[in-house]
């Protein structure tokens, strides 16, 4: 029992029709469900922001979505309001199998800090608890899938590799936002960190 499937942010707002729709985000759901059958542990993550979160452009006067801002922890892309706690947009895609989940990690609930990674908030210091859970379960190999390849999957995979996990990202079961070359940069960053892109 040392392998876990980590399913990142397969939520309505990241699928077509959602507030921060990723092209083809819904195409990966069936393939992800199928992978759960042979996973020893399944972890789902959920982007879970309070209203007025600091990563929302609407929280900054004069700023539009996809503009950048300097936060105390570094540069931050400003997003349309998305995945607000308790809304339909924050729900998992209706076809995603959730009954197989051993754990659901909610992230991004601190109003002042965004959290792309399933392991640490964007200050790269505040843990989400996932590492402790996986260690307790004796898990050291991770397969990652979900949305978006170049943001939450990327940050999660790089953090996991740094923490010592053997990480494979199934690119066919991820979809990207691809903002100003972010997908190519993410692929390079993941490979550099020792993540296997399959
Ligand atoms: C994500 C942007 C903002 C993601 C979450 O899941 O990749 N991207 N919040
Ligand atoms: Zn978010």
Strand order of the largest sheet: 5-2-1-6-7-8
Which bin fits the share of residues in helices? 10-25%
β-strand number? 8
Query: Distance between termini?
Result: 22 Å
Structural class: alpha/beta
Poorly predicted sequence stretches spanning 5 or more consecutive residues: none
SSE topology string:
EHEEEEHEHEHE
Provide the list of bound ligands, each named once.
pyrazine-2-carboxylic acid, zinc ion
* Arithmetic mean of pLDDT: 97
Portion in beta strands: 15-25%
Q: Count of helices? A: 4
Largest sheet: 6 strands, parallel
Q: Would you give an account of this structure?
A:
This protein is α/β, with parallel strands linked by helices and 198 residues long. The chain is 20% helix and 23% strand. The protein is built from four helices and eight strands; from the N terminus they run βαββββαβαβαβ. Strands 5-2-1-6-7-8 form a six-stranded parallel β-sheet. α3 runs parallel beside α4 (182-192). It is globular. Bound molecules: pyrazine-2-carboxylic acid (VGL) and zinc ion. Residues 9, 14, 47, 79, 116, 147-148, 151-152 line the site of pyrazine-2-carboxylic acid (VGL).
Mind sketching the topology for me?
Layout: E1 3-8, H1 29-36, E2 41-47, E3 68-71, E4 74-77, E5 103-107, H2 130-136, E6 141-147, H3 149-162, E7 166-175, H4 182-192, E8 196-197
Parallel strand pairs: 1-2, 1-6, 2-5, 6-7, 7-8
Antiparallel strand pairs: 3-4
Keyphrases for this structure?
single chain; 198 residues; alpha/beta; 6-stranded parallel β-sheet
């Amino acid at each position: 029992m040392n392998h876990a499937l980590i399913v990142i942010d397969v939520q309505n707002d990241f699928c077509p029709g959602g507030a921060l729709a990723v092209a083809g985000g819904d195409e990966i759901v069936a393939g992800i469900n199928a992978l759960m059958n042979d996973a020893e542990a399944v972890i789902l993550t959920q982007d879970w922001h309070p209203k007025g979160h600091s990563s929302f452009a609407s929280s900054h006067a004069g700023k539009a979505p996809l503009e950048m801002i300097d936060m105390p922890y570094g540069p931050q892309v400003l997003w349309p309001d998305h995945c607000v706690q308790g809304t339909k947009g924050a729900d998992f895609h209706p076809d995603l199998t959730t009954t197989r989940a051993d754990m659901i990690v909610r992230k991004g609930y601190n109003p002042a800090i965004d959290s792309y990674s399933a392991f640490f908030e964007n200050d790269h210091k505040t843990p989400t608890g996932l590492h402790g859970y996986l260690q307790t379960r004796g898990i050291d190999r991770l397969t990652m899938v979900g949305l978006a390849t170049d943001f939450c999957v990327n940050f999660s995979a790089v953090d996991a590799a740094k923490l010592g996990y053997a990480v494979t990202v199934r690119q066919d079961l991820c979809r990207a936002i691809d903002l100003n070359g972010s997908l190519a940069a993410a692929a390079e960053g993941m490979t550099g960190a020792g993540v296997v892109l399959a």
